[in-house]
Specification:
Elements: E1 2-5, E2 7-14, H1 21-32, E3 36-37, H2 39-44, E4 58-61, E5 70-71, E6 83-89, E7 97-106, H3 109-116, H4 120-137, E8 141-146, E9 149-154, H5 157-173, E10 184-196, E11 199-201, H6 203-213, E12 220-223, H7 224-227, E13 234-242, E14 249-254, E15 269-271, E16 278-282, H8 286-298, E17 302-307, H9 310-320, E18 324-328, H10 338-349, E19 354-359, H11 364-370, E20 378-382, H12 389-400, E21 404-406, H13 408-415, H14 429-439, H15 444-451, H16 455-468, H17 476-489
Parallel strand pairs: 3-5, 10-12, 16-17, 16-18, 18-19, 19-20, 20-21
Antiparallel strand pairs: 1-4, 2-6, 5-6, 7-9, 7-10, 8-9, 10-11, 12-14, 13-14, 13-15
């Protein structure tokens, strides 16, 4: 059973005089990915080589479905040419076109104009001609050309890589006027785009452009999405934040024998250190969050994002996967507990992210609510504590390492409460004092220094606290958390 489907052209193949159907299929597959010759093209052979016009219809069979790339021939009467065009049938999969994007940019064009003078225009024309020839040979389609920049699309990343390598070899081998070195940076990415006004628009188009801008003349940068299918060896350069894009990109460099492979650090891109201690900050006061960011950055902590609303905070946590989210407890729109609710949501959705809540006033009920599930990777501090930079930074790091940080004022408030059937009644004053410092997130060594006692003495108190609170004999770190929770809930 046959049927007709809507199609869009994405590339063109030149047919050799002695080339038969299977050979053409193999060559098309190298350039465009999985391609199948329609039966009518195979039957057509070389007697009527044809190039499809926009009104041509694509024929596919039910066995392969309408989503497979197909080379077809349906020549209008009397029209003959030595070209055949690759078409991608449209269907649900192609409601948005999935294409490979190639951006190119002539490096140092302003300097070339100044040095070459009237010779620059012919040089620019020659670079464009070289690029267009390489793009055409690889079955690509030029979309836009503005000055020294060019944008083309291909059916596959392999085709884009083929064009990039061919063009770079031409640029590298050619002798240019006055001994000048003409170098072109290139970027390849594969993704979705919508056809509009004779071109393509979409975030992936912008990403491809930014990847190109990050490179140097003679360098071909490739996105993670395109790296496995670019058809040439690649070397990973790392993960980078690109100008204007929120999501970082793993960038690769195409490496081909005979072409330069060593380049300076990427331009307009910031390397993302996977091991960096990264935080995000949420506070509707720009002055306060900028101040906190400056303090943390001066202490070697990376601030990946700043937010003024709870929704923006959750987006940044999902995007940057920080060690800690520092959150103001009261945020827009109601200035009640939006920050607290966002912190609880982070603990549920991103259990590896620590949460440090800041509050203007002592609100023990909020602290208990925040710590109700576990005290691991949780902190609650008054904003005044930010002024003690060393203590504040230490608290941020403790929370990021899975510990806790509870403001002494909150601890005092909880201690001063009258409790019935208090499970802590069995503790001695010194043991209660030790437990209060444990609740603040301090280590045994820090407690010993605060109380001016030996580390051994603190360890004995901690062991006694565990026993009196009848905590199970598990890892000390876990029992420490349970002891703090018992204290808070008492």
């Amino acid at each position: 059973m046959r049927r007709h489907v809507e199609a869009v052209a994405v590339g063109q193949l030149d047919v050799e005089e002695d080339e038969v159907g299977p050979q053409l299929t193999a060559r098309a597959e190298r350039r465009f990915g999985a391609v199948r010759l329609a039966d009518d093209l195979v039957a057509l052979g070389l007697e009527q080589p044809a190039r499809l016009l926009p009104e041509a219809r694509v024929v596919v069979d039910d066995e392969h479905g309408p989503h497979d790339p197909v080379i077809v021939a349906d020549p209008p009467a009397g029209r003959h040419t030595a070209n055949r065009t690759l078409w991608l049938p449209r269907g649900p999969r192609y409601s948005r076109d999935v294409l490979a994007f190639l951006f190119t940019d002539l490096e140092g064009s302003t300097g070339l104009v100044q040095r070459l003078g009237p010779k620059y225009a012919p040089v620019l024309g020659e670079t464009q001609a070289l690029l267009r020839a390489a793009i055409d040979r690889a079955g690509g389609r030029e979309i836009d050309c503005r000055g020294d920049e060019l944008f083309a699309v291909f059916g596959t990343a392999a085709a884009a890589g083929e064009a990039a390598v061919a063009a770079q070899r031409e640029f590298h081998a050619r002798e240019w006027p006055d001994g000048e070195a003409v170098r072109v940076r290139m970027g390849i990415h594969i993704g979705e785009a919508e056809a509009a006004n004779g071109g393509y628009v979409g975030l992936d188009v912008h990403r491809a452009s930014r990847i190109c801008s990050a490179g140097h003349g003679g360098q071909v940068l490739v996105s993670a999405a395109a790296s496995e299918d670019v058809g040439a060896p690649v070397r990973e350069l790392g993960e980078y934040e690109l100008n204007g894009l929120e999501k970082p990109e793993r960038i690769f460099q195409l490496v081909e024998e005979g072409l330069p492979s060593e380049f300076p650090p990427l331009r307009f891109a910031r390397a993302v250190d996977a091991d960096a201690f990264r935080v995000v900050i949420a506070d509707d006061s720009v002055l306060l969050r900028e101040g906190i960011a400056r303090l943390l950055e001066d202490s070697g902590i990376e601030v990946a994002g700043q937010s003024g609303t709870a929704d923006d905070l959750l987006r940044h946590v999902g995007l940057y996967k920080p060690r800690v989210a520092i959150v103001d407890i009261r945020m827009p729109p109601t200035q009640t507990d939006e920050g607290l609710q966002a912190a609880k949501s982070i603990r549920e959705r991103f259990p590896d992210v620590g949460v440090l809540v800041l509050s203007q006033h002592v609100e023990p009920a909020y602290a208990i609510e925040l710590l109700s599930g576990s005290a691991e990777g949780v902190g609650y501090l008054l904003k005044d504590r930010v002024a003690d930079v060393d203590e504040f930074v230490a608290a941020v790091r403790r929370v990021g390492e899975g510990g806790s940080a509870l403001d002494p004022a909150v601890v005092s408030e909880l201690v001063g409460r009258r409790r019935q059937d208090d499970p802590l009644d069995e503790l001695t004053p010194r043991e209660r004092e030790v437990l209060e410092l444990m609740a603040e997130g301090r280590s045994n060594q820090a407690i010993a220094e605060r109380l001016v006692v030996t580390l051994r003495a603190v360890e004995k108190h901690v062991t006694s606290i565990f026993a009196k609170l009848r905590l199970p004999a598990t890892a000390d770190d876990h029992r420490r958390v349970l002891a703090v929770l018992t204290f808070l809930r008492g």
